[in-house]
Amino acid sequence: MTLWLMAGLLFTPLAWAVLTLMVDFRKGRLVTWLGMAVQVLVSLGLWAAVASDGGFLYLLGGWQAPLGIELRVDGLAVTFVLLTALVAAACGWHASIYLDPGKPWHRYFWPLFWFLWAGLNAVWLGGDLFNLYVGLELISLAAVGLVALGGQADALRAAIRYLMAALLGSLAYLLGVALIYGQFGTLSLAGVTELMNSGDAQSGQTFPLVLMLLGLALKTALFPMHGWLPPAHGIAKSPVSALLSALVVKASFYIAARLWLDLGGELGGFALAQLIGVLGSLAIIWGSWLAFRQTKLKQVVAYSSVAQIGYLFLLFPLTWGVTEAISLQAQQGITLQVISHALAKAAMFLAAGNLIMSVGSNRVDALAGVSRFLPFSLFSFGLAGVSLMGLPPTGGFAAKWLLLQASLASGQWWWLAVLLAGGLLSAAYVFRVYRASFIESTDTDQFYHPSRSLEVIPMILALMSLGLGLVAEPVLSVMSLPFEGGGQ
Amino acid sequence: MTLFSAPFVLLSVMLPLASMVLSCRTEWQRGYRYCLPLLPLPALLLGVAVEPGWWLELPGLLIGGLWGADDLRRAFLVLTAMLWLIGGVFAIGYLKDHHLRRFCVFWSLTLAGNLGLIISLDIASFYSFFALMTFAGYGLVVHEGTDEANRAGRVYLGMAVVGEMAILSGLLMAAQLAGSGLLANLPAAIAGADRQWLIMLLLLAGFGVKAGLPLLHFWLPLAHPVAPTPASAVLSGAMIKAGLLGWLVTLPFGEVSLPGWGNALVILGAVGSLGGALLGVRQQRPKAVLAYSSISQMGLMTLMVGAALANADYAGPLFAVMALYVLHHGLAKGSLFLSTAMALPTSRGGQWLLWLLIALPGLSLAGLPFTSGAASKLAMKELLKPDSFGFAMAPYLPTLMSAGAVATMLLVWRFLWVQRAVAGVGSNPAFMWLGWGLATASSLILFWWLPWPEAVPEKAWLSAMVYEAWSLFWPMLLATVIAALAWRSVKQR
Amino acid sequence: MTLSVLMPVFALMTSLLASVILFALPEKGYRLRTIINLAAAILKIALVGVMIWGVAHGREYEAAFTMVPGVEFVLRADALSMLFAGLSALLWLLTTIYAVGYLEDSPNRSRFFGFFSLCVASTMGIALAGNLFTFFLFYEMLTLSTYPLVVHRGTTKALRAGRNYIIYTLTGGAVLLFAIAWLHGLVGDLRFQEGGYFSDVDPSLNGPLTIIFVLMMVGLGVKAALVPFHGWLPQAMVAPAPVSALLHAVAVVKAGAFGIIRVVFEIYGLEAAEAMGLLAGLSVVAALTIIYGSTRALYQVDLKRRLAFSTVSQVSYIVLGLCLFGPLGVIGGLVHLVHQGIMKITLFFCAGNYAETLGVHRIDELDGAGKRMPGTSVAFTLGAFGMIGAPPLAGFITKWTMGAGALEVGMDWVVAVLVISSLLNAAYFLPILHRLWFAEQCEPWPHERRWGRLETSAWLLWPPLITATLMVLAGLLANVPFSPLSWAELIVLREVAL
Fold first, then answer.
1. Of A393, A397, A438, which has the smallest distance from its Cβ to C151's Cβ?
2. In which band, very low, low, confident or very high, does the pLDDT at B26 lie, cut at 50, 70 and 90?
3. For position B1, what pLDDT does the model report?
4. Fewer CB in 10 Å around end: N or C, chain C?
5. ipTM (interface pTM)
6. Which residue has the higher pLDDT, B135 or B33?
7. What is the pLDDT of residue B458?
8. How many contacts, defined by CB atoms under 8 Å, are there between A and C?
9. Where is average pLDDT lowest: A363-377, B43-57, B95-109?
10. What is the mean pLDDT of chain C?
11. Closest CB from C392, C403, C416 relative to B62
12. What residues of C are in contact with residue A473 (Cβ under 8 Å)?
């Protein structure tokens, strides 16, 4: 059973990608609808299987690493797989209505979309460094392509910039992988950990880790390497921005986090952990501030991503040199943050797309008086904003709560200030948008209501992000499920 | 408390309040005016017909209510109800259509407060009704809406609010010590309190505002003259007594002798009674003269309060005398106030008769033999003998009382003098005649049949007045001589 | 799932569901919206009524589940929560009625009523919250749901007020979150419990606990408008009258005060808080707020602003009452939670009526309004006297109990504060009353509207009359069972270990 599920998860996206590559936009859309239904079902199935039986290691084709492909199917991975399925399906659905079938280059959306999805699944499940790299590259290239779909010169420029950053990041990462392989002779993460724990760790090994983290941080747009993100996310079509912000940046972070949790304890150090934490904090503050200053709606959301990503990097200081319990708390907090941000940010971008479509302008000012038309999308935007602000009962709040607890318990109280200030700053830029929508001016009687399904999708995502806080406990309990032995 | 009278008790407070329903419709306001005299009727019946000593428990009210009446309260109740009834009758004739409805509402509210505070035995009800009377009284004071009335109202309200707060703090502290919500437990608690001086100061000052204690009296000569005449009558006759009642039911009379406080109050009383007269004779308007006369009279009562405070043994009998005095002064002063609004008849004989009837309650105040004033003055004299009191001011009491009588008489002359100058000739509405007639009659005649406090010393009043005629008479004579001299000197100028 | 679990959930859900439905309704669905609003409000009153009855007879209502590891979501009905829940449910109904009349023909009604219901749901949640975490959850939800109401008019002024409101409250919320998280880190998940947790705490924890207490008071004090965190409140006056009424009488300021009550009684414990010397500081802040608010109110010419500063002052009575750490003082504080609510909402309803019917906003335009609008003015008069603390109205009961409580524990200066505040109250309310009843109307009303025979729309007239009546009854019949005073006594008897 799980064999079929695994196969469905990894290879069918590639199959859909190839299929859609050969047809035009409308047919591709039909294929995609079918594909999305299958993917969601499969992801759900796998999640249910893991939730009931626990996680496992899966060796593709039965060969051991390094020859074979080792997949790590634990609670965390399946949760992300499911998250990907939900968010990607939502974005795909939205795109299928949102994108104009009349533009010829839009037909490439579908294959790129599916390649992206395949890459994401590969990253979540990947167990060795090289496979992770492959997945990452797949994601990056697909993402760059999607950004370029914007079609204008600006979009191309942003895409090129994005490509450069992604390649540079990949390069650094690959270099680090090579060094690790040179030292340990294996690419399997589990293998490296095992070797290290056996006691023959040598000095000077921090460098490859730093190199890999640097590359991944660049891909994740950690401050001060965030320059490429806002243009790319801001200029892309809304469903694309949603995908990029919600999932793509998380993939590289996911790898970084895995590296850190497996290797960081030995190879990392207090200074490194704190440095990353500080960079994350700066990202929170600076990103929020820039988001506050933006005049274009989507730029606000894009800079907000920079800030929200900053939270993720608090994982590093909060898991280094602390007790198991605190580390677990921090991991849970970060996981919740990833999930809630993915849901909220996707909702926000999709809603922003709808709003821009409704008022015919991408400026924040243009929203003046919009709230009187009771646009569903504004509401979704608002709900997602609540999650970003980290106010209860959203997932964002649950995440923040756990992080607060972890920082307090580990004695690193300085992160408290960052967490609280970050919440307030995000409130500042979110309320700026609300505020604009409440302005009563007489000249806004032009309002186009997008179709129902376009409006419903962000709402569903926002509500999920909102409800996440209430069900955080069951979700987290699946994530922390232990492995059931080694093989399949 | 019999079943029969419980509705009466409730009705005596509720009727005035319920009457406000009549203000809901503009068409009913004429009817409202005619209802005014009916409002105090249940209370009057309660005072006259029901023997004191009854009480009624109202556990749900405020923080536990208890209403009832004793000998002292009965006198206050009878006076208050009488006076409001008379005022109500007079008001029917007196009132114009100007804000009629508003006047009636505030009249009813003030009445309810005034009656209610008398029959309240628990602190919360007492204070509630007291406040109701105070605040609603503002409506009567500023009714005319003139600048002068508004200014008077401001002073009245300002001082009243400060007074209320003093009362509240005093009551709070006393009640906390007593551990009880009943007024009856306060005196004992205050008598044994550590901070007795503070509590007493607060209560004396708080109620003193209402009672026109010197230096707390400023509102009184401003407010009483500007109010509509029937309102002035009840203000000066009945409401001013609420302050006195407040003292009598809260301060530690009969519990402990406090010569220090007694001295202070006697001095204050003397200042009030003489100083009030001194300022009063300089007034140009009849109602202002009467207002100062009220201050002066309250000064005399303060004198008695001081004596009662100074000597615990005499508190009981003095209470009775004070009750009698209250009854006398209230009715007489009410009658005098009402007479300021009367127009003189055209016939010369009628004019003389009217002047006589106007003057008689005044002379009664001064203690003319065979009037209510003589009776209360004699009762007072009987008790305030210097040798039975042991405090510093006691020897001066008889002198002060005589001086007070002179002062009172002077004020009466002054009143008649200025009233003569302003009184016009014309006709009065029937209800004004009726009201004024009732007032004068009750002051001069009905007084003798009203239920007196039982503790008033038994005495053959008629013979006593004959014997004491000279002692009553010489101060009046002296005052008349002074008045005549003054009149001559003014005339020559 | 038994009834005892479902009751608090239902009570919360009535307004939450109502809010969702109201958002979905088209703008023109006037009649349907009114029906839904009123039905939900009446249903909620019934539910709360049943719970009050049950709690009085010793039944327990509780629903709980784990939200985040280590943290529970708890809804629980105890006597204290019923005090607040009862008040909110009752005033919600009245305010809804009022709002229907007030917003007649104005735009954005779906939005308004949607957020309005959400706001009430949050209030209900705050009342029913069984631990600090749940409390915080609804506390922040309240912040968010009131923002759209404050900026409802969409004018520059409203938006500025909204911005200030959100800055104050969110910052306060952040401080509160910090404090709660810290406390949670120190001692774990704390349910509200009779007598608190720290009666015999390790002295080494006194330092952190004191700081946490101060932080919590700051966080809660923003909503309770303790000086110097009161700045948002007078500005928020630009909101429509029903909102200011609700904001000031029930929802927002009371949420802060209620939180302070919970923290002092059921987290720290009155005795422990007193022993740590925390109450002394709090009482000074409360006293300063009382005097400051009243003094500022004196100088306001705008009616609603004057009322707002009055609120600043009055809410601190509740806090001051707690600091008296004796049964009577606590009763006084608790009962004022209800009394202040009824009185202040009456005053705001009336202010709204003057604005809506006559176009009058400033106090000096009120000359002679008593003759034109007697019903409203009677209600206003009663409310004002209640605020002054004149007997036998509700405010007097508060003042009397609190005064007695202060003397009981030897904090005599509190009586002086009460007296000064009453004098100031009199100084800023009585002139208004004079204008209403005794001044002659000199100029025509700025913007008069006529509603047939009545002085104003019946929707607008009845709510203040009802609340005024309630206020009189709360004072007059303070000693009967289920009166606010009796209920406060029950709370103290049951839940406050003294």
1. A438
2. confident
3. 47
4. N
5. 0.90
6. B135
7. 61
8. 103
9. A363-377
10. 87
11. C392
12. 65-69
Closest by Cβ to C423, choosing from B63, B128, B162 = B162
Q: What is the pLDDT of residue B456?
A: 67
CA atoms lying within 13 Å on the CB side of residue A108: 12
Residues C362-388: what's their mean pLDDT?
90
Nearest chain B Cα distance for residue C136, angstroms:
36
Q: State mean pLDDT over C442-451.
A: 82
Give the range among A190-199, A264-273, C98-107, C303-312 with minimum mean pLDDT: A190-199
Quick one: pLDDT band at residue A285, thresholds 50, 70, 90? very high
**Which DSSP helix (H) or strand (E) runs through C66?**
strand C61-68
In B, minimum Cα distance to C428 occurs at B158
pLDDT band, residue A70 (cuts 50/70/90):
confident
Q: Is the pLDDT of residue A485 over 80?
A: no
Q: Residue A391 and residue C70: Cβ atoms within 8 Å?
A: no
B165 vs C contacts (CB less than 8 Å): 419, 422-423
Mutation pick from C23, C33, C68 vs chain A, by most beta carbons of A within 10 Å, is C68
Subunit contact A398:C155, Cβ cutoff 8 A: no
The proportion of chain B whose per-residue pLDDT surpasses 90, expressed as a percent, equals 18
CB contact under 8 A, B172 and C403: yes
Chain C: list its partners (3+ Cβ pairs within 8 Å): A, B
pLDDT over 80 (residue C269): yes
Q: Which of A392, A439, A476 sits opposite C141 (nearest CB)?
A: A392
Chain A adjacent subunits, 3+ CB pairs under 8 A = C
Number of domains in chain C: 1
Q: Which residues of C touch B112 (CB under 8 A)?
A: none
Q: What is the DSSP letter of C63?
A: E
* Shortest distance, CA C18 to any CA of chain B (angstroms): 38
Reduced 3-state DSSP string for chain A: CHHHHHHHHHHHHHHHHHHHHCCCHHHHHHHHHHHHHHHHHHHHHHHHHHHHHCEEEEEECCCCCCCCEEEEECHHHHHHHHHHHHHHHHHHHHHHHHCCCCCHHHHHHHHHHHHHHHHHHHHHHECEHHHHHHHHHHHHHHHHHHHHCCCCHHHHHHHHHHHHHHHHHHHHHHHHHHHHHHHHCCCEHHHHHHHHHCCCCCCCCHHHHHHHHHHHHHHHCCCCCCCCHHHHHHHCCHHHHHHHHHHHHHHHHHHHHHHHHHHHHHHCCHHHHHHHHHHHHHHHHHHHHHHHHCCEHHHHHHHHHHHHHHHHCCHHHHHCCCCHHHHHHHHHHHHHHHHHHHHHHHHHHHHHHHHHHHHCCCECHHHCCHHHHCCHHHHHHHHHHHHHHCCCCCHHHHHHHHHHHHHHHHCCCHHHHHHHHHHHHHHHHHHHHHHHHHCCCCCCCCCCCCCHHHHHHHHHHHHHHHHHCCCHHHHHHHHCCCECCCCC
Domain ranges for chain B, please list them.
Answer: 6-492
Q: Does A401 touch chain C (CB under 8 A)?
A: yes
Inspect the interface and report whether the beta carbons of B172 and C415 lie closer than 8 Å: yes
Report CB contact under 8 Å: B60, C485: no
Q: Which residues in chain B are closer than 8 Å to C416, comparing Cβ atoms?
A: 169
* For the ranges A97-106, C343-352, C485-494, the one whose mean pLDDT is highest: C343-352
pLDDT band at C469 (very low <50, low <70, confident <90, very high): very high
C410 contacts chain B (CB < 8 A): no
Structure letter (DSSP) for residue B227: S
Could you say which of C391, C415, C480 has the minimum Cβ distance to residue B169?
C415
Range of the domain at C361: 3-495
Which candidate in B23, B58, B63 is best for mutational testing of the C interface (most C CBs within 10 A)? B63
